[in-house]
């Protein structure tokens, strides 16, 4: 018999409407308000031992206090599962559901599940951390929605394999998992092409990535007065790789002084990049980081100053998250040093 | 062109005085074969181990896998590499199912990049190689053999062993026969002219790592700076193409049993007309990549007259982009494409799956993510990697890319990275 | 890899001389290589000095 705690807001907890949106968290025994739909969906498989309630405004304005108190209330009931919402399109409610589920998972190790409409801000904010079932816009089919949420919740409790977002009705969490499949990729590709040729709809096995546009910084006004820095993701390191930059999936970058150097001495450098044949850039590091030419341009006055630090990391199998973080960190350092332009050599 | 594969199904393998068939068991003269392979002056010592499905055995330092094949009619074996230069793809070839030749690389200093095959347990479930018997050939380099020479000699030893085994079936009646019969793309019978014409664009090498002089790939040519070219699919099935020395997620075995080619043959004359195979290499510079994409698209569109094309690649990120450029060019010419890609993410995030986003490339099949972690249990027998003991015995914490055959870029494998 | 650079939103992109030697070319003499390198770096400075509104590839002159 699965022990379930439900979380609902002031409205679905039958405390009132907007006038009660400031109520602080409380817990009542058994299934109250919308939690009764969860109990019905559970049937004999489980029991809603308590219903937590919290006002939408309190949760939105005092999130830390609200979550801390609710996590403590959940812990006190020792459930096997937390079911939050469903929040439909109610934004404050949806965010609170996502936040509470994430906190209960992380702090108590208890499986949690919630549900809301795809336009609810809570969906995009929390779908990566929490299983959020896709619901309609309002409570018109409450029991139906409760059934789907409970079904997924029970799978989590029983540690059963969770199906795809499409089959189990939740928002894609953005995690990829290798899964056995009956047909070879070749067979699937042939079938997919034949479908495409006959105009039938095709479901691609890879979602196409979208990258946010980066607003272009304005041009460097007067290059003869500008400080230009050299950066690379081609894996240049000083001999010995003192900063331990990883050859693959890097999480670190190095900052290497070139003050006073007209050239890079190949004997003092190495290259740890695993994604290409580094023979030629090891023979002559300028083939990757053009200090020699940049220095000449500096001396000729074409560039105001060559920045004294070269930043380097390895760009092979680097995750998007680390790439973005390292880029930001390097950019901040360069900005602090009044660098106005960067030449990034990428392999 | 017409090729007949005459299959013998091998149920068991065992060492014996002579290599011959005894019912469905293949007896192998392991000592004689080993001595013959060791005659190559680039090799110093050869050891042969026999491994069977279901054993708690892990084969390590896997360099390549070969399917046993021997020509009985229609030219030499593996022309340009083993046999004299001649055309492949016609006549009769003996083939063995249920047994393969595995060659190991005993020299690689970072063996972590080499593959393994688990014959039982969770690793076995991931690859077809766990379901067949293996003749594992391990050879050590002679003192004066360079790296490229050693790899060429090792690969040649594997091909010789593959022929030796298949030849043993030459006198017995085959268990099954397959016929691959495909006229040139210009000779389509009137009754079949309505069928959509489909081409296969096969990227056979990536120049992220330039080929060695003895690293033959296409009829023994190291395909340096190869421009897109055409072959008949039978040539791929019959030994004209072998894998180079860069072995990430691909094997010669998969090329010999090419699943895209076989799938297209299976539908040929019914749902489609198999228009032909374009071979490409992934180039290392942008101008070369653009030229290759343009010429490959030209062959598909204007020479083969295809309506659709399937693409596969070999290697990592740059070949991935190279393939996409060729496919995008085809789409721009009105040819519908489907690409077989790998999940490129290293942290399991779906944003990292793809490196490109070209318009029209909306039909993608994925072969799984090689960077996803995988735990393998301890085994009791290790073959081909004695020097890596005791750690290699396990348990191992590794990734999917280390299991030979789990993620196979020409589409032979049965894993898919699902976005959850 | 310029298509990748365009896709991820880099605004000023200069194609280099190859993955394994972006700012060099082993078929050339050292002097010729340095001249090639200088041309590419100068192109990069031109790109930095140009107004762009979106990912723009500054091809070799």
In summary, what is this structure?
Chain A is an alpha/beta fold. Chain A has 2 domains: 167 residues, Rossmann fold (3-Layer(aba) Sandwich); 123 residues, no CATH class. Helices cover 34% and strands 19% of the residues of chain A.
Quickly list its features.
heterotrimer, A: about 350 residues, alpha/beta, Rossmann fold, six-stranded mixed β-sheet, 14 strands, C: about 60 residues, mainly alpha
Describe how the helices and strands are arranged.
The complex is a heterotrimer of chains A (about 350), B (about 425) and C (about 60).
Chain A: E1 2-9, E2 26-29, H1 35-42, E3 46-54, H2 56-61, H3 63-77, E4 81-84, H4 91-108, E5 112-116, H5 121-126, E6 131-134, H6 142-157, H7 165-168, E7 176-180, H8 185-197, E8 227-232, E9 236-238, E10 254-257, E11 269-271, H9 279-283, H10 291-299, E12 305-306, E13 309-312, H11 320-336, E14 341-345
Parallel strand pairs in A: 1-3, 1-4, 4-5, 5-6, 8-12, 8-13, 8-14
Antiparallel strand pairs in A: 2-3, 9-11, 10-13
Helix pairs in contact in A: 1-6, 3-4
Chain B: E1 2-9, E2 12-15, E3 20-22, E4 25-28, H1 30-37, E5 43-51, E6 57-66, E7 69-73, E8 91-97, E9 99-105, E10 115-118, E11 133-141, H2 147-167, E12 176-181, E13 197-206, E14 229-231, H3 233-237, H4 252-256, H5 259-267, E15 273-282, H6 286-303, E16 308-312, H7 317-332, E17 336-343, E18 364-369, E19 373-376, E20 381-383, E21 396-399, E22 415-419
Parallel strand pairs in B: 1-8, 2-4, 6-20, 9-11, 13-15, 13-16, 16-17, 17-18
Antiparallel strand pairs in B: 1-12, 3-4, 5-11, 6-9, 6-10, 7-8, 14-15, 19-21
Helix pairs in contact in B: 6-7
Chain C: H1 2-8, E1 12-13, H2 30-48, E2 56-57
Parallel strand pairs in C: 1-2
Task: Provide an overview of this structure.
Chain A has about 350 residues and is of the alpha/beta class. Chain A has two domains: about 1-170, Response regulator (Rossmann fold); about 225-345, no CATH class. Chain A contains eleven helices and 14 strands. In chain A, strands 2-3-1-4-5-6 form a six-stranded mixed β-sheet, sandwiched between helices. In chain A, strands 8, 10, 12, 13 and 14 form a five-stranded mixed β-sheet that branches. A two-stranded antiparallel sheet of chain A has the order 9-11. Chain B has two domains: about 1-175, no CATH class; about 185-375 and about 395-400, no CATH class. Chain B is globular and about 60 Å long. Chain B has about 425 residues and is an alpha/beta fold. In chain B, strand 16 (about 310), helix 7 and strand 17 (about 335-345) form a beta-alpha-beta unit. Chain C is mainly α. Chain C has one domain (about 1-55). Chain C has helices at about 1-10, 30-50; strands at about 10-15, 55. Chain C has a two-stranded parallel ribbon with strand order 1-2. The longest helix of chain C has 19 residues, at about 30-50. The relative contact order of chain C is 0.25. The mean pLDDT of chain C is about 90. The chains are: A alpha/beta (about 350), B alpha/beta (about 425), C mainly alpha (about 60). Chains in contact: A-B, A-C, B-C. Chains A and B meet through strand 7 and helix 8 of A and helix 5, strand 16, strand 17, strand 18 and strand 22 of B.
């Amino acid at each position: 018999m699965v022990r379930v705690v439900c979380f609902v807001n002031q409205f679905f907890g039958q405390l009132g409407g907007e006038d009660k949106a400031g109520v602080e968290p409380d817990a009542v025994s058994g299934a109250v308000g919308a939690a009764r739909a969860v109990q019905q969906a559970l049937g004999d498989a489980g029991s809603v031992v308590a219903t937590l309630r919290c006002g939408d405004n309190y949760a939105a304005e005092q999130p830390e206090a609200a979550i801390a108190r609710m996590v403590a209330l959940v812990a006190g009931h020792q459930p096997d599962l937390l079911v939050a919402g469903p929040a439909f399109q109610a934004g404050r409610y949806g965010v609170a559901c996502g936040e509470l589920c994430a906190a209960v998972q992380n702090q108590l190790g208890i499986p949690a599940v919630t549900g809301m409409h795809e336009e609810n801000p809570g969906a995009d904010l929390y779908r990566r951390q929490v299983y959020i079932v896709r619901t309609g816009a309002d409570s018109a089919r409450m029991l139906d929605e409760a059934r789907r949420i409970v079904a997924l919740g029970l799978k989590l409790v029983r540690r059963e394999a969770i199906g795809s977002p499409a089959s189990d009705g939740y928002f894609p969490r953005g995690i990829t998992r290798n899964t056995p499949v009956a047909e070879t990729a070749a067979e699937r590709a042939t079938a997919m092409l034949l479908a495409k040729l006959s105009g039938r709809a095709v479901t691609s096995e890879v979602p196409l990535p979208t990258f946010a546009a980066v607003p272009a910084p304005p041009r460097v006004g007067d290059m003869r007065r500008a400080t230009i820095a050299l950066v690379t993701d081609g894996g240049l390191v000083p001999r010995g790789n003192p900063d331990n930059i990883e050859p693959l999936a890097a999480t670190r970058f190095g900052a290497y002084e070139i003050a006073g150097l007209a050239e890079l001495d190949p004997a003092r450098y190495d290259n740890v990049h695993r994604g290409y044949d580094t023979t030629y850039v090891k023979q002559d590091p300028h083939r990757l980081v053009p200090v020699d030419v940049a220095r000449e341009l500096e001396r000729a006055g074409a560039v105001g100053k060559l920045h004294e630090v070269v930043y380097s990391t390895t760009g092979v199998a680097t995750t998007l998250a680390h790439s973005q973080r390292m880029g930001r960190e390097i950019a901040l350092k360069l900005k602090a040093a009044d660098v106005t332009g960067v030449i990034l050599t990428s392999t | 062109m017409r090729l007949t594969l005459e299959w013998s199904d091998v149920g068991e393998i065992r060492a014996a005085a002579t290599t011959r068939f005894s019912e469905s068991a293949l007896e192998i003269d392991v000592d004689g074969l080993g001595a013959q392979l060791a005659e190559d002056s680039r090799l110093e010592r050869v050891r042969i181990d026999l491994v069977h499905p279901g054993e708690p055995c892990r084969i390590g330092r896997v360099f390549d896998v070969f399917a046993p094949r021997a020509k009985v009619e229609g030219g030499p074996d593996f022309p340009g590499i083993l046999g004299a230069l001649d055309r492949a793809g016609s006549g009769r070839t003996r083939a063995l199912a249920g047994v393969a030749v595995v060659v190991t690389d005993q020299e690689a200093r970072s063996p972590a990049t080499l593959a393994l095959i688990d014959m039982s347990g969770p690793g076995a479930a991931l690859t077809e190689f766990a379901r067949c018997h293996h003749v594992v050939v391990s050879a050590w380099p002679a003192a004066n053999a360079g790296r490229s020479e050693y790899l060429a000699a090792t690969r040649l030893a594997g091909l010789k062993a593959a022929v030796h085994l298949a030849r043993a079936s030459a006198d017995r009646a085959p268990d099954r026969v397959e016929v691959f019969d495909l006229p040139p793309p210009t000779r389509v019978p009137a009754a079949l002219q309505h069928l959509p014409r489909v081409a296969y664009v096969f990227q056979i090498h990536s120049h992220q790592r330039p080929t060695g002089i003895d690293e033959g790939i296409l009829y023994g040519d190291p395909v340096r700076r190869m421009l897109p070219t055409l072959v008949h699919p039978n040539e791929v099935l019959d030994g004209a193409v072998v894998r180079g020395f860069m072995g990430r997620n691909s094997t010669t075995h998969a090329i010999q049993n090419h699943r895209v080619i076989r799938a297209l043959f299976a539908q040929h004359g019914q749902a489609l007309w198999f228009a032909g195979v374009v071979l490409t290499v992934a180039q290392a510079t942008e101008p070369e990549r653009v030229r290759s994409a343009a010429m490959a698209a030209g062959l598909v569109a204007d020479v083969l007259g295809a309506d659709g094309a399937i693409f596969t690649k070999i290697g990592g990120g740059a070949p991935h982009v190279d393939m996409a450029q060729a496919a995008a060019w085809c789409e721009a010419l009105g040819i519908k494409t489907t690409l077989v890609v790998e999940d490129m993410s290293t942290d399991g995030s779906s944003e990292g799956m793809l490196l490109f986003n070209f318009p029209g490339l909306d039909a993608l099949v994925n072969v799984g993510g090689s960077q996803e972690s995988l735990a393998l249990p301890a085994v009791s027998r290790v073959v081909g990697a004695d020097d890596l003991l005791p750690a290699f015995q396990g348990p191992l914490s590794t990734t999917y890319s280390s299991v030979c055959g789990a993620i196979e870029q020409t589409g032979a494998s049965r894993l898919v990275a699902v976005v959850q | 890899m310029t298509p990748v650079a365009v896709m991820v939103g880099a605004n000023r992109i200069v194609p280099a001389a190859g993955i394994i030697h972006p700012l060099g070319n082993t078929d050339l003499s050292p002097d010729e290589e340095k001249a090639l390198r200088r041309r590419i770096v100068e192109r990069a400075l031109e790109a930095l000095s140009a107004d762009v509104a979106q990912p723009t590839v500054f091809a070799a002159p």
